[in-house]
Amino acid sequence: MVAASGPNTAALRLVNLSPYLPVQATTLPGENCNMMGSRSIVNDPVSGDKLGPKKSFDTRIPAGQIFNVHSWLAQPNMTCSVTVSFMPQPGREYVMSFDAKDGKCFIGVGRLEHESVNASPVVVREESVRKRSNVAGIANSGNICAPEIR
Q1: What is the DSSP letter of 5?
Q2: Are the C-beta atoms of residues 94 and 109 closer than 8 Å to each other?
Q3: Beta strand extents in the chain (DSSP E only)
C-alpha cells in the first residue's frame, strides 16, 4: 500500500471485487455532496488504468475532512448506485471495496490496524458518518449527502 504523504493525507486501496467496470466512482467535497466539484477515483493515479474487474490500486486521499464516494454501475441486467462517507484520519490506511451481485451494489470501507510489527494488518470496519435515504440524490436536487428521510 502507498504510504500517506504528509500530515493531511491518508492512504486508500481501492478494490473492485465485482466482475464489472464501474461507470464512475467520484469523490464529492464537503457536506453538500452535490455533483459539482466531484472528481473521479476509478483511474489509477500512476498508470491511468481504470479500476477494472477484480483489480485494485493504491492512492492518497485528504485526511481530517469528510470523504464522500458515490459509485454506480450500468449493465444490461442491472443498474445501481451506492454512496459512503467516512472521516479519514491523517497517516492512517484504508481499504475501500466495490462489489455488485444479485442486482445490488456495495461499498465497504475498512481501516487497517497494525497490532504488531510482524503481524499482518487487521481490517476494521469503518462506520459511515451519515445515514441516507435511498432516494436522497433524486429527492434533494442531486445532493446525495442529504439526511435520511424518515
Answers
A1: -
A2: yes
A3: 9-16, 24-28, 39-40, 56-62, 67-75, 78-86, 93-101, 104-113, 122-125
CATH class of the domain defined by 9-139: mainly beta
pLDDT in tens, 33-56: 655 666 777 777 677 777 888 888
pLDDT computed for residue 139 by the predictor: 45
The residue type found at 27 is: T
Q: 5, 59, 69: which is closest to 33 by C-alpha?
A: 69
Other beta carbons less than 10 A from residue 125's beta carbon: 9
Q: Which of 129, 86, 147, 135 is nearest to 111 (CA)?
A: 86
Where are the domains positioned within the chain? Answer: 9-139
**Residue 139, helix vs strand vs coil:** helix
pTM of the model: 0.76
HSE toward the beta carbon, residue 9, CA cutoff 13 A: 11
* Cell 481501492 found at: 14
